[in-house]
């Protein structure tokens, strides 16, 4: 699907989708449990991949309403899957369930689409091997397809922290149900640290304790997953809130209010501080879970995305509309997402007239030297690229067509419906393939 967006002003109230990060972890944690009900879940392409994996490990996941999932788990003992686990485009699924596969007494094969098969998994495979399992890439390049044979028996392993925090999350979740637990020593500084905080928060809500140490993380063994009263509620997603908040700051006719913004361990709450630093008027009513953002003239700033890689596309668009330069630093790990998001944003915004300077670890947006012109841009098969370009399109001179817009279904299935509800003039065009 392609979407053509005409310049628009927006106002009103929208509801953020549930957090994808929390939903992935809640579905898998419910799989590790005997049974659980997950409320306010994001039921998207990515989270369905995690649900399919839980079922292949011996559980069941039933959607009883639009956002409620009833899960019968495998109770800490995954069975060997009867089929290959297809993680589709979901890197979170692949990494979290690769560690689950290392618990099964037998061999599991995991794969995904072409994008996922290009993403690094090597450090996690090496960790599983060091823990007594067997794990390898069929192509010998640290990328899927992966073959994992368990069960792991080791208690301590070192792992880099600067490639993906999901390796640590995966091992903590699996380590809780091993006999002796796991101690993870970090070889390098941890990037995207808030995502491990999210994992530890979800584990605690399921009655499992994991904690940080001076050298890394530790989780005791022989623990049981059991959420209080058998239920878990997923908070709203601040990665998705970033686009709606940016709409208010850039194209608000008065203001935009986003509901579902509960306090949580999500690092992407940083978008609100970034907007304030750039000059936007932001009010976060934490008790009501509501964020209101009003339009303002923005100024470029320097911002690190070391812990918030998913915000880079949003920040890049804000920078394109700001005075001066917006300098996004500590960004090298953002190149290893669904696409290389550093290059993708530089190239696609470039088509719209935005001047950028791209380096390996940074992206500078020269707002004062840029114009925003309507153009045909490519979503790169990446939901976050699509949504950020949609925000940029509201300010462009003339209509902008975003190719491959259907990829928003990965994390925000109703994104374009929400935009229309806020007043955006858009047209959906079904593509021929």
From TrEMBL:
Keywords: Amino-acid biosynthesis, Aromatic amino acid biosynthesis, Cytoplasm, Transferase. Residues 7-419 form the Enolpyruvate transferase domain. The keyword Amino-acid biosynthesis applies. Pfam families: EPSP_synthase. InterPro entries: Enolpyruvate_Tfrase_dom, Enolpyruvate_Tfrase_sf, EPSP_synthase, EPSP_synthase_CS, RNA3'P_cycl/enolpyr_Trfase_a/b. It is found in: Cytoplasm. Its main location: cytoplasm. Phosphoenolpyruvate binds at residues 20, 91, 119, 166, 341, 384. The active site is at 310 (proton acceptor). Pathway: Metabolic intermediate biosynthesis; chorismate biosynthesis; chorismate from D-erythrose 4-phosphate and phosphoenolpyruvate: step 6/7. GO terms for biological process: amino acid biosynthetic process; aromatic amino acid family biosynthetic process; chorismate biosynthetic process. GO terms for molecular function: 3-phosphoshikimate 1-carboxyvinyltransferase activity. 3-phosphoshikimate binds at residues 20-21, 25, 164-166, 192, 310, 337. It catalyses: 3-phosphoshikimate + phosphoenolpyruvate = 5-O-(1-carboxyvinyl)-3-phosphoshikimate + phosphate. HAMAP family: EPSP_synth. Catalyzes the transfer of the enolpyruvyl moiety of phosphoenolpyruvate (PEP) to the 5-hydroxyl of shikimate-3-phosphate (S3P) to produce enolpyruvyl shikimate-3-phosphate and inorganic phosphate. Belongs to the EPSP synthase family. PANTHER family: AROM/DEHYDROQUINATE SYNTHASE, PENTAFUNCTIONAL AROM POLYPEPTIDE. This is 3-phosphoshikimate 1-carboxyvinyltransferase.
